[in-house]
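Model: Ready when you are.
Researcher: Fold this.
Model:
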Amino acid sequence: MSSNVSSDLIWAITRNNSSYIVKRGPVKDQIIFTREPLSLTNQHTRKHSGLVNEKAVGVQAGENGNVVLITKKNAEKHGDKPASLYNKTTFRKYKSNRKIYSAIANAVAKNVYRANRFIGRCCPC
């Protein structure tokens, strides 16, 4: 993604033409999901799209039971180098779930990746 291309333009292009789109249900009540690696909620909206937003976070299951945190770097510096656009941090399966959660929340909060969604939310109370 180049820094001189608007995120609105990218969304307008990929909104209806993306290989990540998954449509479920009958045509009149159809729900659209996405399989983007950087979409935490799997909703096909501009707000949750990892392709469009400059900062995006993804959490995936790695091999051997590990957890992989993927964060997107600044597109202005790394836009012409797609291989270096993402940071991947692997958490071993031997760590407790609480330690993995707090490490992910701290990493997300330090880089201001949608901080209000992660900090202080361990349960839907």
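Researcher: Now this one.
Model:
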Amino acid sequence: MTQQQKTPDGLVIVDKPSGFTSHDVVAKMRGIAKTRRVGHAGTLDPMATGVLVLGVERATKLLGHLALTEKEYLGTIRLGQNTLTDDAEGELTSSADASKVTRDAIDAGIAQLSGDIMQVPSKVSAIKINGVRSYKRAREGEDFEIPARPVRISSFTVYDVREAVAEDGTPVLDLIVSVVCSSGTYIRALARDLGAGLGVGGHLTALRRTRVGPYKLDSARTLDQLQEELTVMPVAEAATSAFPRWDVDTKRAQLLVNGVRLEMPEEYTGAGAVGVFDPEGRFLALVEEQKGKAKSLAVFT
């Protein structure tokens, strides 16, 4: 993209590298896309890699409305060691021989952590407790509790169990797992709780997010690839993949864009955000049904 070309509106699906915060990726994308108008839809821990959804230019208005409620991960859980952060980034806090843990016990532990559960997020997380980030309280050595919250684990599968010896000589088990879960789930908290339930401790040693809502790893690009060629999913395509579609005639299109609350077809009742398209297939606005009428959420013309 040359300096003269306008940055296209749309979503950029990034394959985030390990060691980068989500904010680091946004900062990098601002340089690549040559615009300040870049935002992200949901964070990914620095250690983790994989799908991070960014919005560029007008598509930043889409981000808060995207129903990215289901996420999919591949990861490695180490049984036999606890860490301060529940992942490999944190200091080791305890070790226990995990070599006697059976596959049946692991499967039973995973069953306990599947379906609709209450989860206590990691203390080193970005959750605010009385207005202060949890990780800030933890770093200052404060003793505090994070309330459990409901999450849904649709699928929690162990593909492989590998025996290993940790650096401190402890016999450990490394589980290769996949998880499909609701937004707000902490995979490292699953690792911690699985290890606690088995009596040996556990933490997450690797994590790769393979899907966020409808956006998968096969459509993601690394920052190096995006530096070579900025690949943007046009805002109309992004809206079509994420929201129900309402096609309107030219007259209705004009009225909706001007904020007139038109009657919505019954099929959109309770559907949440709905994408409005004109007869030429242009994406005009996001609306939601309110008392049978279209309430504007964001206009894109």
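Researcher: Key takeaway?
Model: Residues 243-299 form a domain with the Archaeosine Trna-guanine Transglycosylase; Chain: A, domain 4 fold (CATH 2.30.130.10).
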